[in-house]
């Protein structure tokens, strides 16, 4: 790179930065968002949070009930993820170029994956809420559908990465389709697949709260209930429980990942 | 009686370009035959037509008195157990152990369920270890394949082919990714398969000198056609030129 190009490069960065500043200013002008006003409210809001969301003796008494719904939510997320993983395994097999049976099934698998992935989990909850009503099946299904979409996509890519070579070799020995899948494809992408499943369990525990608020199940419902009855101390406790649970699950899955990879 | 008989074989992936044109060939039991030719001559495609890893368009292949082209799925599977295959990039399952990879060669004889559960008989396991010992890699039996060198991996590949108890072994450029030393070991083993076990070998090769050293017979392929067929000593400078084209000949001499 010569001097001229260097100078040009630097100018480009300056112009780029200016554009971003102008864009920020412009969007806050349009939305009438005043950064300074927002900043001023922070101390007040923090004060309110500290005084209202602090956990009191009264709210601690509700802990067993909160724990119960939290555990229920965690297990629902795990169940939704593992069941979705089983379905995604087959969809992934049909969709991947390495293992596809025929192009019809491949297109079908990709279609299912893309539909369920591209509709956000919040939208799924609301759609399913209308059809299934307010119960835990709805929350379960919402998580399940979103997970199938994501995991199918992820599995498909892991299987594509495995490549044709060992599949070709086993085909040449006279092995059947499921022998090839179980002994050549799965062993090679298993660590990646497990890693995706763990990731999805984490994500689902987080989204389960939101799905719960919408569909009236699990910890989300508890949160919503206390919130609407203005019991803010209990809301604070629920939030804390969720945060701790998510961190714990994160730590556990990171540990498992380290062991299997 | 020929083990493999190829008559008027033709193959094209697209309608405008033919990869193989009117290939006629007979291979007898116990022969060691090399196919040489420039890249893109159709060597790999030809090899894969024999066990129908690639479907051919024209002609007839008879293997072991069976018409390969007319076999249904089950019969094709049965036939493939009689044909071992060795690949340039070994095509092992890298995350599995050596012994597991060798035993994969038995899948053709098993039901789907036996294969998935990994049910192997004692004889099969013993045979696998015998083969590993024969190829000098028994001490690596429980290592993962991705920890092995290229030459060792290729020997695992040969074991996998041999445990099939095949009548024919197809080798697709078995030494193209190996250093000269490992290449010699692999070629010696392949030669031993033919001389000691009486298994026919059909080998795609890039190296003319290697082909001349090891083969009973050499077939020269250029642009999908057989341009030379004969014993190793019949292969003259001029014929090599014909197989590889002028430019390559100059390269070889240089």
Describe the 3D structure.
The complex is a heterodimer of chains A (261) and B (254). Chain A is mainly alpha-helical and 261 residues long. Chain A folds into two domains: 3-52; 58-260, MetI-like (MetI-like fold, Orthogonal Bundle), CATH 1.10.3720.10. Chain A is 87% helix and 0% strand. Chain B has ten helices and ten strands. Chain B has a six-stranded mixed β-sheet with strand order 6-7-8-3-9-10, sandwiched between helices. A four-stranded antiparallel β-sheet of chain B has the order 2-1-4-5, with helices on one face. In chain B, helix 6 (150-162) runs parallel beside helix 7 and helix 9 packs across helix 10 (246-253). The longest helix of chain B has 18 residues, at 180-197. Classes of the chains: A mainly alpha (261), B alpha/beta (254). The A-B interface holds A 165-166, 168-176, 178-179, 182-184, 187-188, 190 and B 51, 53, 77-81, 83-85, 87, 89, 91-96, 100, 104-110, 112, 115-116, 118, 157, 160, 164. Chain A: This is Phosphonate ABC transporter, permease protein PhnE. Chain A: It comes from Neobacillus rhizophilus. Chain A: It is found in: Cell membrane.
What does the secondary structure layout of this molecule look like, with pairings?
The complex is a heterodimer of chains A (261) and B (254).
Chain A: H1 3-30, H2 35-53, H3 57-60, H4 63-95, H5 103-118, H6 121-132, H7 136-162, H8 165-172, H9 177-215, H10 218-228, H11 232-260
Chain B: E1 4-11, E2 20-27, E3 32-36, H1 43-50, E4 58-63, E5 66-67, H2 73-80, E6 83-86, H3 98-103, H4 112-117, H5 122-134, H6 150-162, E7 168-172, H7 180-197, E8 200-205, H8 208-214, E9 217-222, E10 225-231, H9 237-244, H10 246-253
Parallel strand pairs in B: 3-8, 3-9, 6-7, 7-8
Antiparallel strand pairs in B: 1-2, 1-4, 4-5, 9-10
Helix pairs in contact in B: 6-7, 9-10
């Amino acid at each position: 790179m010569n001097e001229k190009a260097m100078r040009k490069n630097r100018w480009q960065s300056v112009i780029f930065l200016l554009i971003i500043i102008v864009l920020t200013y412009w969007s806050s002008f349009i939305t009438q968002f005043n950064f300074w006003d927002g900043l001023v409210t922070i101390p007040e809001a923090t004060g309110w949070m500290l005084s209202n969301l602090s956990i009191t003796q009264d709210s601690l008494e509700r802990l067993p009930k909160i724990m119960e719904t939290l555990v229920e939510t965690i297990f629902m997320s795990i169940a939704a993820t593992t069941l979705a993983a089983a379905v995604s395994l087959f969809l992934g097999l049909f969709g991947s170029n390495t293992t596809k049976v025929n192009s019809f099934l491949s297109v079908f698998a990709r279609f299912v994956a893309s539909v369920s992935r591209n509709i956000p989990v919040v939208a799924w909850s609301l759609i399913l809420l209308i059809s299934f009503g307010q119960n835990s099946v709805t929350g379960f299904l919402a998580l399940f559908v979103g997970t199938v979409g994501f995991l199918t996509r992820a599995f498909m890519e892991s299987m594509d990465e495995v490549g044709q070579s060992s599949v070709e070799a086993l085909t040449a020995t006279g092995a059947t389709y499921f022998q090839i899948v179980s002994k050549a494809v799965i062993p090679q992408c298993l660590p990646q697949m497990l890693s995706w499943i763990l990731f999805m369990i984490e994500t689902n525990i987080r989204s389960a709260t939101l799905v719960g608020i919408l569909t009236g199940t699990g910890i989300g419902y508890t949160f919503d209930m206390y919130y609407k009855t203005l019991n803010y101390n209990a809301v604070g406790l629920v939030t804390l429980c969720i945060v701790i649970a998510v961190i714990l699950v994160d730590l556990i899955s990171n540990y498992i990942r380290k062991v299997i990879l | 009686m020929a083990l493999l008989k190829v008559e008027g074989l033709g193959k094209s992936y697209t309608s405008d370009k033919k990869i193989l044109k009117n290939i006629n060939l007979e291979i007898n039991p116990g022969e060691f035959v090399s196919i040489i030719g420039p890249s893109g001559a159709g060597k790999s495609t030809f090899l894969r037509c024999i066990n129908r890893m690639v479907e051919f368009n024209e002609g007839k292949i008879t293997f072991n008195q069976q018409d390969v082209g007319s076999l249904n799925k089950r019969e094709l599977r049965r036939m493939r157990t009689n044909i071992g295959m060795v690949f340039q990039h070994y095509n092992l399952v890298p995350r599995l152990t050596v012994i597991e990879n060798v035993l994969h060669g038995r899948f053709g004889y098993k039901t789907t369920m036996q294969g998935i559960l990994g049910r192997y008989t004692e004889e099969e396991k013993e045979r696998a270890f015998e083969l590993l010992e024969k190829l000098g890699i028994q001490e690596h039996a429980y290592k993962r394949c991705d920890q092995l060198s290229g030459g060792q991996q290729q020997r695992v590949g040969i074991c996998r082919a041999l445990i099939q108890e095949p009548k024919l072994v197809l080798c697709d450029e078995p030494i193209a990714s190996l250093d000269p030393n490992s290449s010699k070991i692999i070629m010696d083993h392949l030669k031993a398969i033919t001389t000691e076990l009486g298994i026919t070998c059909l080998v795609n090769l890039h190296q003319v000198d290697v082909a001349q050293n090891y083969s009973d017979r050499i077939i020269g392929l250029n642009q999908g056609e057989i341009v030379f067929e004969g014993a190793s000593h019949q292969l003259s400078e001029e014929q090599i030129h014909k197989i590889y084209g002028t430019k390559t000949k100059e390269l070889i001499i240089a």
